[in-house]
Structures are given as C-alpha cells and as structure tokens.
C-alpha cells in the first residue's frame, strides 16, 4: 500500500482534528435552508433513508459495484464520466461533466468567464448567478453531476490552474464557493467540489507529496471545502496528490476524519480522473467512486468482496452515499424536474455581466481610459488576441462557446462609422511559412497531408543566412502522440514527454483558427546549413501538419507594423496573452514569446497605450510605467470582447479587484528561492510558508508587490469616513460610510481586514480579510455600510486542542480599498460572547 509508513504521521494530526470538530464558516448571504439543492417533494413513506436501504437490499453485488466506478457511456454526450445505473430498479445513469467555467460536453455551451474573474467582482450574488447558469445548462445538456467548483487556493503563481479557482484568500473563496454551489444545485445539478485537497499545482500533480502542518491546512486550504460541504455539495472529488504521505484519494484522515466525522458530509467522494490507487484501502478510507473507469473499484472490488477481503457492508455504505444524493435530487423516483431547454441568450447575458463586473483596472494614467471623444475614434488594436478571441483556458475547463467575437470586432462596432480602428499583429503566434528557397530539396513543409496508414519523410537541408533565434511552430492534427517527428541536426524539436502536460492543449492560441494543435520551440541557429528531417505517419485518421517559424526579421517586421499603427492612432489597445492549462505549470510569470519587447516598442511609440491582459494569473510587467493603462481580463469567456470593450469605452465602470497578489518578478514571491516549497524536491513539497499564503506572506516578509491583493481602480473615486466598531456576539461589526466622490456611477468593494490577537501565542497574519461589501453608488451618493465578522474569521486553529480558538484582546481593524490601501483604522477588544 503506498505511503503506509508515512500515513501514520498524517493520522496523528488529521485524525485528532477529526475527533475534535470545528466551527461553522460564516456564509456570505445566509440562506442555509436553500443550500442543499432540491429537496424531495413531501411524499408518502418510505423516507429517503428507507428507500435507499430497500434499493440496496434488492441489488446484486455486480449492480452495487457498477454504481461505484466509471464506465463507457453508450450514448455519450461527450462528458467526462458516466455510471450506468440499475435500470431494473429505476436507478438512472449518471453523467458527469466538467467544469468550472461552463459545461464541457461535445456541444456548444455558454463559456463563462474563468472563476478567477468571477471572484474579482467580490460579489456572492454573482457567484450564485454563475452557478445557476451552469446548473441549468448542465441539466439541459443531459448532465447530472458538475465537476466543479475548484476551490484549491492560489498558492503559487506558476500553477497551471490558477484561473480555474477563486484566489488566495480563504474567506472570499469560502463565500463564493458556497453561493456557486447553491446556484448549481438549485437548478437540480449535483455539484462535485474539487480537488480535495491541496492540489495547488500541476507540476507532478499525480504523485507529489504535500507536506503541510495541521494549522496551515485548517486555516488556509480547507475552509473553502468546508464551506462547500455546509452549502450542501452532493459530491467531493479527491485530489491526485498525496497529503503527508498518503494519496488524497485514500486518506482516511481526510475522507473520513475531516469530511465526514468533522463536517458531517453525507454525499459521496469520487476520485479525480485515474487517481485511484487501491481497492480495499481506498474504500476503507472513505472513497466511494472511481473515475473514469473501474481499475480498482470494478472487477477488483467485486472479487475482493467475494474473497472476503472487503466486507460487503463497506460497498453498501458507498452505494448508500451515492443513492442518498441521487434521491435528494429526485433522481430515484422520477421526482427531478424535467430537463429544461438551453437558454443561450440568458447564458450570454450572465457571461457578459460577470466578465464586465470582474475586469480589474490595474492602472490608469494620463487620462488614457475611458476612450472618449477623438480618442475613441482613432484606435490601433495590437496583438494576436486582439483578432482571435481569447475565451477560456485549456484542459478540463475548456468550453466550446456558443460564439465569440474578437475584440477587434467589438471595438470597431463600438467606435462606429467613420472611426479608424486598425489592427496590427505585433506577435505572430502561428508562425510564417519557411520559404522553399531555404530548403533543399525545396519541398515546402506547409499544408502537408499524410493519408491514413501512410508515411512521409523529408530529409534535407535548411540553410540559414545569419545566426539567429528561430521559433519553430508546428501545427498538427491528431493526438499528441501522433505528431510529426522533427529533427534539426539530429536534435528532436518537439519531443513527446511522458505526462499529462502533453495531452492538454491550452486556450485559443494553442489551436490554429482551422483547428490544428500548436507547439512552439525557440532555437538559437548558427548561419549555415542544418540537417532537417521530418517524419510523419498518417495514423488511422491521416495527419495534416505545417512546420512554420518566426525569425528576428519576421518579428521585427511585426513589431514595426505595430509601431506604425500605434503612431498613427490616438490610442492603442494592446492585447497580451498567456495560455495556461491544467497538466502543466508555467515556468515564469513573464509574458510568453516576445510580448515584452512588443509592449516596450508600442508604448514608446504611443504612451496612451492600454495593455489588456488575457492571462491565467499574475504577470510581471517590466513595462508598466510606460503604459497608459492596464486592464486585467483573465480568460473572460465568450462575451469577453464585449465586456472588455464596454470597460475600455466607459460604458461600464471597472469594478473588479485582485483576488491574488501580483509579484514584481519571479524572485519576489512566496515560492521564490526555495525549491522544497515549490516545485518540490524528490517528489515532496513543503508548505513551509505556513499560513502566510498570498498577501499574508508579502506583509510578513515586508516585500512590495507589483499590485496588492484587493487592488482595483474605477473611473470614479470613493471616500471613506466614520468607522464605528462594536462587538456582535463573539464576532465584530464594522460600520462606516462610503461616498462616491467622482462624476460617474460605480461600484466599490469596501474591504475589512483584522490584525492579530495579542492573546494567541501564534504567528498570525499582519492583516487578514475578515469581511467585504460591494456597493454601487451614484455620483455624490453616500451609503452606510455594515460588515459583520463572524467569530470564526477572528479565530485561529489550535493544534493542541484541535479546534478553533477565538483571538481575543484588542485587535486592529482596517477598512479600505485594497489590502495595502487602508482608509480607516480602529481598534476593538474581541471577547467571548457573554
Ligand atoms: C481534472 C479534473 C477534471 C477531470 C475530468 C482531471 O484531469 O483534474 O478537474 O474534472 O479531469 O475531466
């Protein structure tokens, strides 16, 4: 059994936690009674438990086992997972689809903005609406379970899935995830919150052993999951990684201790895809379902029961958990409401609203934005993603959008007749044809087609006139394993590396407009002749491919064209991208390719340049001071171009705030300089920053970020006044006034941070988000805002007694516009109620 020895150390603290119990996390908008999704209509006996027991009593072992593992769906809708049900007993199949930014099936769906953009709005009501949209679509598209939300914290700026989750703060994450689950499940779709727990990076995600202490786990990563459970999530997906020596999908302390004993979770736990590692151990630890197949929970489980190695009662328990949730959603007695039709119009409206609400204006100088008057009629749009809509990230969060306009189209439309809106590529992500004159034999490597079962070889010479850096770009159809082999001077340019990263393509610059996968590699070439050998096999479907490249000269020409366009226009809007996917982490927070050089050249030509970022997470911005404005749109979904345009032109006022700190550079963030912390050494990774995740680390270490957590600008200004603090039970209440002091209507997120408790002998955060409120104000309007901070937000985890302990004594409360922009400060004594 993997990790048997080290599991003991995990048990020593996790098991103790489980025994001790924890307190409830405050819900953002308290509607606990609607939390758990549809309740069965009041009906005749037997009640749910009896009904489930009766069903189990009538099932054969084979039937029971068939409910506990994935199978091939004969009528697949393109979803990720399937269980067949037991038709003779009226138990229907379950279809399980991704994911976090919309329903991923083999059909069009609403591509919503990435969760990180949703989170930026700091608006639990929008999270509910987001959930409702996916919930309805999921049911309309024939699904029963949604593999979402992803609630793992952003711990490292390199993690490939930072766009799929909410941010670096546990309070904000907890409140948003609860509302999203209420939204999803309120429409009748079962939500599977993921990945339990500590899947905070993609590097070695299937094997990395996360070494974490009890307090860090409890205070940072777990609150989001706990909140999901308390909001009634029907299912939990276990993570790939290990936690303190044991795979998360067979960790008794996590799956039984924390989840069930402590939090009272009564739904089922499934694996992440291919994340099962054992039969008896995993089942005994609390795992109920293997996905997407039955390597351990199929025939092996049936046999283990037959042989007496696994008590059938354990199988019954797992089946009972699945059926109980199905029953709660009306799936067992035909009580589920009929599947609705899709409403693409409503989906698009929600996608637009949320992308607009979440866009974060990071910088706005020299009156660059909004675009009005002559500035709105003479615009250069620069960058490949100005003309290709960047909709979503890659991997299981990828959604096939109903439609997606490019920013160029929406900007042109908004600028109107008579306006001049030019586009310059600036950076060529798909490469240019290698001229036949550089090749001998002069057979082009463009538009090659190799028929099924056939092979094609090119064995010749590439002649390079000057030593130069070339970026080779390969476009190919078919699976990653079937791509052409390209050898340059006997060196393979696009080697196939084992691991999931090869199978996931990123977002929209990783696929050509005609649907081919793209790989890029930069090579320093010396002048002269190089041997080039390309071998391609047609496979069963045939193979289409192109080999292209960029050189210093082609890149300079692209930049020169962008500079010309920038000079000729009043304003420049430059779209920069970074293309992330699950399955791999990035290696730098710098923009990929030669985008930094492009931005430097363009901002020099026109200082009224707005850089729009379509990136997964934070980005280093060595060119920041040269820009007029920077607008962070992350992966904005199918309505991203319209939302971006509305914000650029001031039709909407920016109202998003960063949910993660942006570091200045690759060596100034919590993971820098310590490979044991990230990406791990010898398969082990230590969360040695402890509770100092995100902004807590920058505060503790006195490191200046590029942009702090909670930062976001508006086209109007807000003033804060009159802080009053009082105790509310064992918690606190802050009341203050926010006034819109500018000339435009806008929204502000008033953020409340608390300082450490002098009574707790623990390292604590210098400030921690304890509450917030999003307020819309007309010009001149003032509103009294009241923010409640529940006792739990003022508590720390006591590792001796394995429970939450209130941080009593005088505590500082800061109210402001970001974690580093306090406008009001007060102090109040925190005491136990009564
Ligand atoms: C991902 C999950 C996803 C699953 C099914 C896995 O690779 O980690 O988040 O739900 O695939 O697509």
How would you state the average pLDDT, rounded?
Answer: 93
CATH class of the largest domain, named Alpha Beta
Q: Describe the sheet with the most strands.
A: 6 strands, mixed
Helix content: 10-25%
In terms of DSSP E residues, the strand content is 15-25%
Quantity of strands, as a count: 35
Widest beta sheet: strand line-up? 1-2-3-4-6-9
Family: Belongs to the glycosyl hydrolase 3 family.
Organism: Streptomyces malaysiensis
Keywords: Hydrolase, Signal
Biased composition (Low complexity): 26-38
Description:
The protein is an alpha/beta fold and 834 residues long. It has four domains: 7-29 and 49-328, Glycoside hydrolase, family 3, N-terminal domain (TIM Barrel, Alpha-Beta Barrel); 357-428 and 554-655, Glycoside hydrolase family 3 C-terminal domain (Rossmann fold, 3-Layer(aba) Sandwich), CATH 3.40.50.1700; 432-550, Jelly Rolls, CATH 2.60.120; 718-830, Immunoglobulins (Immunoglobulin-like), CATH 2.60.40. Helix content is 25%, strand content 24%. The strands form eight sheets. A six-stranded mixed beta sheet has the order 1-2-3-4-6-9. Helix 2 packs across helix 11 (312-328) and helix 5 packs parallel to helix 6. Keywords: Hydrolase, Signal. It holds the Pfam family Glyco_hydro_3.
Key features of this structure:
alpha/beta; signal; 18 helices; Fibronectin type III-like domain-containing protein; disordered N terminus; six-stranded mixed beta sheet; binds beta-D-glucopyranose; 834 residues; hydrolase
């Amino acid at each position: 059994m993997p990790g048997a020895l080290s599991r003991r150390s995990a048990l020593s603290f996790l098991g103790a936690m489980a025994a001790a119990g924890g307190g409830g996390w405050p819900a953002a908008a308290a509607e606990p009674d609607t939390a758990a999704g549809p309740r069965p209509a009041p009906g005749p006996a037997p009640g749910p438990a009896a009904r489930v027991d009766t069903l189990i009593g009538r099932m054969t072992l084979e039937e029971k086992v068939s409910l506990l593992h994935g199978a091939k769906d004969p009528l697949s809708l393109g979803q990720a997972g399937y269980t067949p049900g037991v038709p003779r007993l009226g138990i229907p199949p379950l279809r399980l689809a991704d994911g976090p930014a919309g329903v991923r099936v083999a059909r069009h769906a609403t591509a919503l903005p990435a969760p990180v953009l949703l989170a930026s709005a700091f608006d639990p009501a929008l999270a509910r609406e987001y959930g409702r949209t996916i919930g309805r679509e999921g049911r309309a598209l024939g699904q029963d379970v949604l593999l979402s939300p992803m609630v793992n914290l952003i711990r490292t700026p390199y993690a490939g899935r930072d766009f799929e989750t909410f941010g670096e703060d546990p309070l904000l994450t907890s409140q948003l995830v609860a509302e999203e689950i209420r939204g999803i499940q309120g429409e009748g779709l079962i939500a599977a919150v993921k990945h339990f727990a500590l899947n905070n990076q993609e590097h070695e995600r299937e094997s990395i052993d996360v070494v974490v202490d009890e307090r860090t786990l409890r205070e940072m990563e777990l609150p989001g999951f706990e909140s999901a459970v308390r909001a009634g999530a029907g299912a939990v997906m276990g993570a790939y990684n290990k936690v303190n020596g044991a795979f998360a999908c067979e960790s008794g302390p996590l799956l039984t201790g924390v989840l069930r004993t402590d939090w009272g979770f009564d739904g089922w736990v499934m694996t992440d895809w291919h994340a099962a590692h054992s039969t008896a151990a995993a089942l005994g630890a609390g795992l109920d379902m293997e996905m997407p197949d039955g390597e351990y929970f199929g025939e092996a489980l049936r046999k283990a029961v037959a042989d007496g190695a696994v008590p059938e009662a354990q199988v019954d328990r797992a089946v009972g958990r699945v059926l109980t949730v199905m029953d709660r959603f009306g799936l067992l007695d035909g009580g589920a409401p009929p599947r609705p039709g899709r409403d693409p119009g409503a989906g698009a409206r929600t996608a637009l609203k949320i992308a607009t609400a979440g866009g974060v204006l990071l910088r706005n100088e020299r009156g660059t934005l909004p675009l009005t008057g002559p500035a709105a009629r003479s615009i250069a749009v620069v960058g490949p993603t100005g003309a290709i809509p960047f909709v979503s990230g890659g991997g299981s969060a990828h959604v096939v959008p109903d439609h997606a306009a490019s920013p160029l189209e929406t900007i042109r439309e908004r600028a109107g007749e008579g306006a001049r809106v030019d586009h310059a590529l600036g950076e060529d992500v798909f490469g240019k044809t290698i001229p036949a004159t550089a090749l001998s034999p002069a057979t082009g490597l463009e538009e090659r087609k190799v028929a099924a079962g056939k092979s094609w070889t090119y064995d010749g010479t590439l002649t390079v006139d000057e030593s130069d850096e070339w970026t080779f770009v390969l476009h190919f159809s078919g699976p990653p394993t079937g791509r052409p082999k390209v050898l340059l001077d006997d060196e393979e340019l696009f080697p196939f590396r084992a691991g999931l990263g090869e199978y996931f393509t990123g977002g929209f610059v990783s696929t050509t407009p005609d649907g081919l996968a793209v790989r890029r590699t930069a090579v320093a070439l010396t002048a002269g002749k190089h041997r080039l050998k390309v071998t391609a096999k047609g496979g069963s479907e045939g193979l289409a491919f192109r080999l292209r490249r960029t050189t210093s000269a082609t890149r300079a020409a692209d930049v020169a064209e962008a500079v010309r366009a920038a000079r000729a226009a009043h304003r420049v809007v430059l779209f920069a991208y970074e293309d992330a996917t699950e399955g791999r982490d990035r290696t730098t927070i710098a923009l990929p390719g030669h985008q930094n050089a492009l931005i430097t050249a363009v901002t020099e030509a026109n200082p009224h340049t707005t850089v729009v970022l379509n990136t997964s997470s934070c980005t280093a911005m060595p060119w920041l001071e040269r820009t007029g404005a920077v607008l962070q749109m992350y992966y904005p979904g199918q309505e991203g171009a319209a939302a971006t345009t509305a914000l650029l032109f001031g039709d909407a006022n920016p109202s998003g705030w960063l949910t993660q700190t942006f570091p200045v550079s690759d060596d100034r963030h919590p993971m820098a300089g310590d490979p044991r912390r990230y990406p791990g050494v010898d398969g082990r990774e230590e969360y040695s920053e402890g509770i100092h995740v995100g902004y807590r680390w920058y505060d503790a270490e006195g490191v200046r970020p590029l942009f702090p957590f909670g930062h976001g600008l508006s086209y109007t200004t807000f003033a804060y006044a009159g802080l009053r603090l009082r105790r509310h039970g064992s918690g606190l209440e802050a009341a203050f006034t926010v006034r819109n002091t500018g000339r435009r209507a806008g929204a502000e997120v008033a953020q409340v941070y608390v300082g450490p408790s002098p009574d707790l002998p623990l390292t604590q955060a210098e400030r921690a988000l304890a509450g917030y409120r999003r307020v819309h104000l007309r010009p001149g309007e003032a509103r009294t805002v009241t923010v409640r901070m529940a006792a739990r937000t003022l508590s720390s985890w006591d590792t001796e007694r394995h429970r939450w302990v209130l941080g009593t004594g005088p505590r500082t409360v800061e109210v402001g516009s970001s974690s580093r922009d306090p406008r009001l400060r007060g102090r109040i004594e925190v005491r136990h109620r009564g």
